Amino acid sequence: MTGHGPRGGRTAVRAARLVGLLALIALVIAFPSMAPDSFILSVGVVIMSYAVLATSWNFVGGFTGYVSLGHASYSGLGGYATALLILRADVNPWVAMILAGLIVAAIAVPVGIASLRVRGASFVIVSIALVLILLLVFQSWGTFTGGSNGLRIPRPFSDDVLRPEQHERFFYLHAALLAVALLCWWAINRSRFGIGLKAIREDEDKAQSLGVPTFAYKLVVFVISAFFTALAGGLYALWFGFLDPIFQFSILVGAYMVLMSLLGGIRSLFGPLLGAVIVGYAMEFFKAQYGDTQAHLIAMGALLGVVVLFMPDGIIPALTNLVNRLRPQAASIRELSAAELAEQRREAEAADDTKEEVHR
Predict the structure, then answer these.
(1) HSE-up of 350 (CA within 13 Å, CB side)?
(2) DSSP state letters, 264-321
(3) What value, to the nearest 5°, has the Cα angle with vertex 234 and ends 229 and 235?
(4) Which distant-in-sequence residues (6+ apart) come within 8 Å of 229 by Cβ?
(5) Do the Cβ atoms of 214 and 61 come closer than 8 Å?
(6) C-alpha 325: how far from its chain's center?
(7) What's the pLDDT score for residue 341?
(8) DSSP 8-state symbol, 334
């Protein structure tokens, strides 16, 4: 290997990543025109919505290592806040969605202050409790939230926009929101703030002893996660047009976020996106094939077991480790070819012969 080998390898990896990113962008842009029918396009919207939710969850799970099964509370609140601002206050749908995200972020501050003081299983239980409380509240408060009858939301586009065209527009809107969330995650990952969060993930007590303001860091990233999750819930509500508290505040939604992130890799930028594509497609496939049965839940449970047993860090980290093992490793000194080694050996032997002749 020459002295430029490691640098050339890094350049090749960067080039491959750039090509992959451009291919992903091209695929997202072309998907609506490639979809054979309106149903497949709607599945694409659902998968993109899952990708936004999983990426939003990954701000907490990926950076701090805190596993929240209650993030459905923020997506549900985002959806209901968007709907209620439109129906009760006659706010523009897009403005309502942004305001809903800010409202949920404000609610996440006291929730985070209370819940982030505990760790591990205790934090998981607290996150689940919040979902169950909100489910009971929104089911019981029928005069304001619609209760168990649900809440119908007027779609933001005019009636002359047909359903397939609405799917296409919402697909691109979800893709744009996903791009913003990914960019924010990438920026945090490369910042001093991100380094502190990853220190918390590895050893919170040690990070605190080294001067990292652990609680403040956790609270900030928790609020950011809640904000993007609420935006995803609001955008989904505008697309679907109907809200049901049993679905919006379901622990399964939070479990799906965790599964998608774990499957792709919680420590990687595009891990939740890859997990959302796999899990979202699998869920829609099982629902289409087996109707109202619970086959999709069995499949998700089996998939989670496979991930935990064989790929605990996720698909992307597993593939990255495989590539690193196969790729030639950089050396601290320049390695010589066989011809160069033979030449050096001949020169050494000639030098030894010369020394012997001198001694004689």
Answers:
(1) 6
(2) H-TTSSSHHHHHHHHHHHHHHHHHHHHTTSSHHHHHHHHHHHHHHHH-TT-HHHHHHH
(3) 100
(4) 53, 56, 57, 71, 74, 75, 78, 104
(5) no
(6) 26
(7) 58
(8) P
Return the HEC string of 91-119: CCHHHHHHHHHHHHHHHHHHHHHHHCCCC
70 and 129 in contact (C-beta within 8 Å)? yes
Residue carrying the six token digits 């985070």: 112
Torsion region of 333: left, alpha or beta (phi above 0 gives left; psi -120 to 50 gives alpha): beta
Calculate Rg over the CA atoms of the chain.
Answer: 26
Tokens 């990255």 locate to 320
Write out pLDDT tens, residues 178-225.
Answer: 999 999 999 999 999 999 999 999 999 999 999 999 999 999 999 999
Yes or no: say if 172 and 32 are a contact pair by the CB < 8 Å rule: yes
pLDDT digits (tens, 9 = 90+) for 216-234: 999 999 999 999 999 999 9
Say which residues have a Cβ less than 8 Å from residue 79's Cβ, sequence separation at least 6.
100, 233, 234, 236, 237, 243, 248
